[in-house]
Amino acid sequence: MSLKMPELDGEVLARRAEIADALRGIAGEGNVIDHADGLRAFETDGLTAYSQAPMLAVLPETTEQVSAILAYCNANRIRVVPRGAGTSLSGGALPLGDAVLLGMSKFDAILEVDYPNRCAVVQPGVTNLAITLAVEGDGFFYAPDPSSQIACSIGGNVAENSGGVHCLKYGLTTHNVLGATIVLIGGEVIALGGKAPDAPGYDLLGVVVGSEGLLGVVTEVIVKLTPKPECIRAALMGFPTVEGAAQCVADIMGAGIVPAGLEMMDSRAIQAAEAFVGAGYPTDAAALLVIELDGPAAECEHLLDETCAIARANGADTIRIARDEAERALFWAGRKAAFPAVGRISPDYYCMDGTIPRGQLPHVLNRIAAMSQSCGLSVANVFHAGDGNLHPLVLYNANKPGDLEKAEAFGADILRLCVEVGGVLTGEHGVGVEKRDLMPVMFTPVDLQQQEALKEAFDPGYLLNPGKVFPNLHRCAEAGRVHVHGGQIRFPHLPRF
Amino acid sequence: MAIPVERPANPLEAAELIAAAAGDGRTIEIMGGGSKRGWGGGEAAGDLVLSTEKLNAVIDYDPIELVLTVQAGAKLTDIEALLDTHGQMLAFEPPDFGPVFGEAAGKSTIGGILAANLSGPRRLLAGAARDHFLGFEGVSGRGIVFKAGGKVVKNVTGFDLPKLMAGSWGTLALLTAVTLKVVPKPKASTTLLVRNLSPDQAVQAMTRAVSLPLSVSGAANQPDLTALRLEGFGPSVAARLQRLRGEMTAFGEVEVRDQDFTTSFWRDVGRLATLTDQSGELWRVSQPPAQGADAVQTAEILAALDPDVRWRMDWAGGLVWIEMPKSLPFQIDRPMGGGRWSRVRGRPDVWPSRSDATARLTARVRAAFDPAGVFLERTPLYGSGE
Known about the structure:
The complex is a heterodimer of chains A (497) and B (386). Chain A has helices at residues 10-14, 16-27, 36-40, 63-75, 128-135, 154-160, 167-170, 204-208, 242-254, 267-277, 297-313, 325-336, 338-345, 361-375, 403-420, 439-442, 445-458; strands spanning 32-33, 56-58, 80-83, 100-103, 110-114, 119-122, 140-141, 177-183, 189-193, 217-224, 226-227, 231-239, 261-266, 287-295, 318-321, 348-351, 354-355, 379-384, 389-396, 482-485. Chain A has 497 residues and is of the alpha+beta class. Chain A folds into 4 domains: 10-103, Uridine Diphospho-n-acetylenolpyruvylglucosamine Reductase, domain 2, CATH 3.30.43.10; 110-227, Uridine Diphospho-n-acetylenolpyruvylglucosamine Reductase, domain 3 (2-Layer Sandwich), CATH 3.30.465; 231-336, Alpha-Beta Plaits, CATH 3.30.70.2190; 340-435 and 479-485, Alpha-Beta Plaits. In chain A, strands 12, 13, 14, 15, 16, 17, 18, 19 and 20 form a 9-stranded antiparallel sheet that branches. The longest helix of chain A has 18 residues, at 403-420. Chain B is of the alpha+beta class and 386 residues long. Chain B has 3 domains: 1-185 and 351-386, Uridine Diphospho-n-acetylenolpyruvylglucosamine Reductase, domain 3; 188-270, Alpha-Beta Plaits (2-Layer Sandwich), CATH 3.30.70.2190; 281-345, Ribosomal Protein S8, Chain: A, domain 1 (2-Layer Sandwich). Chain B has helices at 11-23, 76-84, 110-116, 123-126, 161-165, 199-211, 234-248, 259-270, 292-305, 357-369, and strands at residues 5-6, 28-31, 48-51, 58-62, 67-71, 88-89, 133-140, 145-149, 173-181, 183-184, 188-195, 218-222, 225-232, 254-257, 281-286, 310-314, 319-324, 340-345. A 5-stranded antiparallel sheet of chain B has the order 4-5-9-7-8. In chain B, helix 6 runs antiparallel to helix 9. Chain B is globular. Chains A and B meet through strand 9, helix 8, helix 9, helix 11 and helix 17 of A and strand 8, helix 5, strand 10, helix 6 and helix 7 of B.
């Protein structure tokens, strides 16, 4: 791999057998993995460009075990990489060769469902979707819905501050988590937040959410439950110009309408998705919006009328409202299949994740098109339009010499452009190792030093998930992205949007 | 001797003042409008007051983007007036707490609101101040200007330091500029009133209301009056009103009030306008909403001894305010039940100092921003019941 990670600690590696024994003593004989075959299962996450087997893996079952493991590793200066379900798209769970991989998969219980307080207490290994499945019969759901929700764990969601299509209306993980129990690297167990809102004291929970495993290990989470909407409606809107679609998005949001989801695709993405799924997308459109509205039936009807009128005023030449649940699912199937669909038209692609101010969309898409021309690589764009989160898919052929490097340079240029127009490097996938070396594009050295000072308040020895988020190891121009070859993404059963 | 007040005109001037104070061991009290200076009841004074009075410019407001960047000393009233010209607002409904502390209305600044993480009734549905705080520029206790977060809603680049600043009461950094999410104002609103419920019944009614998919944006209770708010587009409000009225009939007779009533009623709920005895102590209790009646029962016991003890419940029970008059025949110096109690007016809390892992981490986090302890901790950071 071209990615530079912290230098291996020879002293720790020399003590591997002794460390394995100590971990067995804490977590039990069967919960420590030290054979190469077993360790291979952990060697990569959703960012498959990089892989590295950990020195050892341990799968604790209790908070006390996590505490004892971290205290032991801290005392012995052993690095620790926490891992949820391993679906990160930014390499957040990429192991280190001299680190203990701390897998949280055995924390898989829903401990309490508290409807009067509209929350649930869950262990971090519970999958995102499992929470909704446990409460939907009683009229509730857990709102954040990252595309990997059937597999990703709530602990990983906390680490990454995961979003999803519906975060436009319902917020990110940080807006839907009330509390967490975390274990610090020294083994201290602390409760952050709780069912009581806005209690005095620093909002440590707020900064732990999205901290990518650098501050502590989550062993319990209190999630907010939201009443399930009565009615869900969806519509497709095709536009002859990108500008028309972008203005339509601005006008919908400006009218005070908060759709449950508002997605945009450009012509290349539309054509690829339509060829793959047959969702009935208008293949001659320059841009397509998929809009979803939820709420009381009267509200959905009213807002469908309003949004369709706004779309027509902005030149939409195709407007189709889903007649039933099956058609609504079909509209989404095309959008959700955009990534694998692009995988069919190109040997390889990789996915970027910047956010921009919505009004910059036409400008940014034009600039991306110009960059595409000059570097000779095509790009398909899908976009969480309501909140300005852009996912350009750069198409390349890894077997063609120089293509990969061109694609990586193109990707980095797109992220620089996002920052240049007032946006950010990553809207929902996280920094991880992927965008680590681009952090100086967005932050000055003093900005990063302040963040590192906070890291040191939690983990002075930089033992938790080192090599992620901060580019302080060295300045490397080549940052990896989500590389996909022959449509063979990791976790192919997971939709990615 | 009066404490000197400095009014830096830009972040670099502020940074110089802070670096100089940190260098020679002086302490600085950061002050916005001073409206909440009485919060916590402390008398502690720094060597210097650093006022954000001159840091009051609007830096960037593009109504289409639904994002506002202003300097931290901008007055809340000015921000609200600016947003209002575009039919927009801050969704977390920040209340002006000046009058709660005997100060004139209109002094609150946005920096002060964020430093206190102070939110109004709509926090129930829209989230707290911290949830709308996207990014900032500030000066650390090292006297270094830095920034964090961004100017877009969806951002996971780096640590979410705006969350940490919200509610830190000026003990970590001086906020010089802040970026906030704004939203269009609702087109229609209405309030349902149910009278004469006991605190228990009121909590049950509010819990029921917020457990339905009706987007109830306010659920407050005062003795004998339970209020629920619906906001949004007209046809939606009408449909939800019908459903909610039907549900609430099980608890008592329902009155429906119009938009004008709704606007003024909820503004008063947020700023505690009906708790008027500023000479007394004011307690804030944060608790799991369904346990909202517990703190109220304590207040009712005290009210049996002194009828001037008053309470208000907000956030469907998650927040209880208790006003205790000077005439109360004894002093309350400890939490009177579950939840997190803090005394916001009167005398400082007198809880024993803490040394648990959370307190130690808190001290390290503070030192990460302000190693010399230049920023005065005027407001106690903790309530009780940890």
